[in-house]
Design brief:
The protein is α/β, with parallel strands linked by helices. The protein has nine helices and ten strands. Helix 8 packs across helix 9.
Length: 257
């Protein structure tokens, strides 16, 4: 069953000196319920713009975005957006527990939200850090807080905008393992935008390949790697190396998908 559907989605932005700037041109694909899909494409092709339209944060110029069969015209309650810049998404005046509780306290009250926050902090390996403030944590730990806050809202879908690009390589592997574990346990629907070919292959069931702007859908790649996956050993599999070669070739214009 398709959970997220993009149908002929086009996006243009105003251009004071000429005709509107088209960044996306009639992109269509769907994400199945419980699927982990990644979006890859050249830098500046509009991957984040696509994700913002999927999240209801930007309206398409034409075309339609549907979640659970319903056309969206604003942020849907089923989905939560995980931003690239965790330092901007966390509230510096709130401690870690209250940052996570912020996602649901308006709905269930602050006391219950704080209890729920402790549970989610345990899920991302941050038990005992509830009284810390974001500035007291490493970058990887701050992104774990952002993920815990997203999970506290109990979404059916995570929309992730290059969530690990601002951390070092080892922390990135650690966070990839965390997301794989969360996805395996919860079977959320995930749409991940990334510029990292190896990350896309490690995490995703399928990969949507975009062209240079105005972005179109160049192809859909079935990953076909066995699960459960490990960010280290999965990278040693022949299928992983084959896909890495294929997708890097596509991005570098050496051959098509």
């Amino acid at each position: 069953m398709d959970f997220l559907e993009l149908e002929a989605v086009t996006k243009e932005f105003p251009n004071p000196s000429g005709p509107p700037a088209r960044v996306m041109d009639r992109v269509s694909f769907s994400v199945r319920e419980g699927e982990f899909m990644a979006v890859l494409g050249p830098s500046g092709c509009g991957k984040s713009t696509l994700l913002q339209m999927a999240a209801g944060l930007l309206p398409p110029t034409s075309g339609e975005v549907r979640i659970a069969g319903r056309r969206i015209d604003g942020p849907p309650p089923e989905a939560v957006y995980v931003f690239q810049q965790y330092t901007r998404s966390l509230l510096p005046w709130r401690n870690v527990r209250d940052n996570v509780a912020f996602a649901v306290e308006h709905r269930i009250g602050r006391r219950r939200a704080r209890d729920a926050a402790e549970t989610q902090l345990g899920q991302v390996g941050l038990s005992g850090f509830g009284d810390h403030f974001p500035w007291q944590l490493s970058g990887g730990m701050q992104q774990r807080v952002a993920i815990a806050r997203a999970l506290a809202a109990e979404p059916a879908m995570l929309l992730m905008d290059e969530p690990f690009s601002a951390v070092d390589a080892l922390t990135r592997l650690d966070l990839q393992a965390l997301i794989l574990d969360i996805w395996t346990r919860r079977r959320l629907t995930v749409l991940l935008v990334t510029h990292d070919v190896e990350e896309a292959i490690t995490l995703a069931d399928r990969i949507a390949m975009l062209t240079h702007r105005p972005a179109t859908l160049a192809g859909m790649v079935e990953v076909g790697l066995p699960r459960p996956r490990d960010p280290i050993t999965t990278r040693e599999l022949p299928r992983f190396l084959e896909l890495r070669h294929q997708l890097l070739g596509q991005l570098l214009h050496r051959h098509a998908v």
